[in-house]
Design goal:
InterPro entries: FL_hydrolase_MqnB (IPR019963), Nucleoside_phosphorylase_d (IPR000845), Nucleoside_phosphorylase_sf (IPR035994). One of its GO terms (molecular function) is methylthioadenosine nucleosidase activity. Keywords: Glycosidase, Hydrolase, Menaquinone biosynthesis. It is an enzyme of class 3 (hydrolase). The chain has one domain: Nucleoside phosphorylase domain (Rossmann fold). It is 38% helix and 29% strand. The chain is globular. A 5-stranded mixed barrel has the order 3-9-8-4-10, surrounded by 4 helices. It starts with a strand and ends with a helix. The protein contains 7 helices and 10 strands. The chain is an alpha/beta fold. Strand 5 and strand 6 form a beta hairpin. The structure holds ligand LNDFFVEH.
C-alpha cells in the first residue's frame, strides 16, 4: 500500500515523519497553506506516483467544547465551510446555490480503525466534521456562526477540502487528521500551542503506521 500524506508546512511534515519513521509506504509532502495550494500540490503528487490512500494531516483550530489543545481529531467528513455566497438572509452553501458540493466523505472503515487504535494507545481522540476555510476565523461571532451552520463542527483548518477534491478526482480514499493547537475564535497566534499539537501529530502518525 502506498500512502500520500499532505501537510501544509514543513514543521507539520517533520512531525509526521518523526511518527512514521522510515516506513517506505508513506510519502509526506508539505503542499502549502490553503485549499488551493493543497489541491494543486496533491494533484501534482498523484500524477507522479500511484497511491492507494491520501491523508490530509496537520494542526488545526478546535471548536469550543468539542476538543482540547493537544487532542487528535479524525474527520468524519471534510467540509468547505466558506464555499458559497453571503446573502441578506445569511450564508448560502454551494449546494443551495446549485453549483456543486462542499462535502467530501472520508473512508469510514479506515477512519474507524484509526480512531480505535488511537484510543487503545491511550491518546485523546475526537471525531467530527473538519472544516476547511481559506480565512482563519478570528472572532467569537464567526466561530459561533460556523458551529450553528455546521452542527458538530469539530476543527477548522485550511487544506483538507483541497486535498480531498484531488483525491476524489483520482478516485482515491481520503482521511483527515488534525491535532489541536488553538481554539477557534478571537485571534491570538502567540497563544497557539504549536509544540503540543505537533507532538500529538507525531504520536498520531506513529499509530497510523500500525493501522495501515
Ligand atoms: O510557527 C510555527 O512554528 C508553525 C509550526 C507549524 C505550523 C504552523 C502554522 O501556522 C500552520 C498553519 C496551518 O495550521 C492550520 N490551522 C491551525 N489553526 C487554525 C485555525 O484556527 N484555523 C484555521 N487553520 C488553522 C491551517 O491548516 C494552516 O495551514 C506554524
Amino acid at each position: 500500500m502506498h500512502i500520500l500524506i499532505m501537510t501544509a508546512v514543513e514543521a507539520e511534515k517533520d512531525a509526521v515523519l518523526r511518527g512514521i519513521k522510515d516506513d517506505h509506504r508513506f510519502d509526506v509532502i508539505a503542499g502549502g497553506v490553503g485549499p488551493v495550494s493543497a489541491a494543486i500540490s496533491t494533484t501534482k503528487a498523484l500524477l507522479t506516483k500511484k497511491y492507494d490512500l491520501v491523508i490530509s494531516a496537520g494542526i488545526g483550530g478546535g471548536f469550543l467544547n468539542q476538543t482540547e489543545i493537544g487532542s487528535i481529531v479524525v474527520a468524519t467528513e471534510i467540509i468547505a465551510a466558506d464555499l458559497g455566497a453571503e446573502t441578506a438572509e445569511g450564508f448560502s452553501s454551494i449546494e443551495q446555490l446549485g453549483f456543486g458540493t462542499s462535502r467530501v466523505s472520508v473512508d469510514q472503515v479506515l477512519s474507524n480503525k484509526l480512531v480505535n487504535a488511537l484510543q487503545t494507545a491511550g491518546l485523546c481522540v475526537h471525531t467530527g466534521p473538519v472544516l476547511t476555510l481559506a480565512t482563519v476565523t478570528g472572532t467569537k461571532e464567526t466561530a459561533s456562526q460556523l458551529s450553528t451552520r455546521i452542527p458538530g463542527a469539530t476543527v477548522e483548518a485550511m487544506e483538507g477540502f483541497g486535498v480531498a477534491l484531488a483525491a476524489n478526482d483520482a478516485r482515491l480514499p481520503i482521511l483527515e487528521i488534525r491535532t489541536i493547537s488553538n481554539p477557534v475564535g478571537p485571534r491570538d497566534k502567540g497563544a497557539w500551542k504549536i509544540k503540543e499539537a505537533l507532538l500529538a501529530l507525531e504520536k498520531a502518525s506513529s499509530i497510523l503506521v500500525e493501522v495501515l
